Each structure stands twice: as structure tokens, then as C-alpha cells.
Amino acid sequence: MPVQVGMGQPKSMSGVFETLENLFGERRPSALATGPPSAPQIRYRNDPVSANLYAAEIAFREEVSPRWLVGPEIAAFVADIVARPWPPQYPCATWPVRIALVPFTGYASYENGTITVSSPVDETVVLHELAHHFAPFALASTRDFHGPAFMGAYVDLLTQILGPDVAAAFDRHLTGRSR
């Protein structure tokens, strides 16, 4: 499974900020890596499912203290993951992945086989974007970016790569249930 690394940028930086303005009502770097001043104050006007997901990710990262990856480590991390055998529900796991590194902090996205991240980035952010690669049909067919197909892939990646305790911590923060 080839993983390519290169410097890059999203197709349109104005599109990045336009999207973030729609989510936060203001111009700011992505909250995914840096977090807002207070997670409960996040307002995602157009997507409450994503709002809940991002708030849970911010909270669970504080609990699990993920490892930070820099430059080539990101590609090695992804290459190791996609080289593993994955069940048939993830046929896209065998498709090529490109890593595009961007020079500003806090940005991460997935589009058409390319994971775009700033460096350094924590491993849970990379797994989040890789889950989009594992479940791209959810993106194409329904624009359901963080629906059941994505969540299944993300939880499977957390479980297989970082362990069941990390996946359970994410689930606790996502659902508000304690186990």
C-alpha cells in the first residue's frame, strides 16, 4: 500500500476559513487540534453530529495523551496501519493514501485519498482522517461526514491501533456514559 508524503495545501485556503466560519461563526484555526477555549461552547451551526464528535475528541485527548507525530512519522504511522489486514467492510483501506503537510497549526482534512495535516499532529487526528479514507462512500453518497460508516471505522481504528481502553475513553466522552 503506497503512502506518499509531500508539502501541499488544500485546494482553497479561503474554503477552509469559509467552512470554519460556518462552523464557529468566526475566523479561526481548526479546533480539532488546538481546541476552543471551552469545549461546551462550540457551536456547529450546520452539523450537530460533528459538534458532538469534535467536543468528545477534545475531551478524550486530554484523558489519553496521544503521541505527537512529526513530518515523516505521519507517513510511517499511516503506512503501518494500511499495511495491516482489514475486514472486507473496509475495501478502501487498500487504496493509496497521500499525506500533504501544511505549514499552519491545527488543520486536518481528508479528500480523495489525501490526508492533509499540519505537523506536528497527534495520532488521534491522523486516525480521524484515516477513518474518512476507510469509509469514503459515506462522504460521496450522503455528505454524512461523521455518520455511522465513519464512526464504525474510527472506533475500529482506535481499538486496533491505540487499544480498546482508548476506544472506550472516546465512547465515554461521546455518549456521556461511564463504564
Short description:
By secondary structure, the protein is of the alpha/beta class. The chain has helices at 13-24, 31-34, 48-64, 72-82, 123-134, 136-142, 148-162, 164-175, and strands spanning 3-7, 68-69, 97-102, 108-111, 114-118, 121-122. The protein has one domain (3-175).
How would you summarize the topology of this molecule?
Layout lengths: L2 E5 L5 H12 L6 H4 L13 H17 L3 E2 L2 H11 L14 E6 L5 E4 L2 E5 L2 E2 H12 L1 H7 L5 H15 L1 H12 L4
What does this protein look like?
By secondary structure, this protein is α/β, with parallel strands linked by helices. It has one domain. Helix content is 50%, strand content 13%. The protein contains 8 helices and 6 strands; from the N terminus they run βαααβαββββαααα. The strands form 2 sheets. The chain has a 4-stranded mixed β-sheet, with helices on one face. The chain has a two-stranded antiparallel ribbon with strand order 2-6. α3 packs across α8, α5 crosses α7 and α7 runs antiparallel to α8. The termini are far apart.
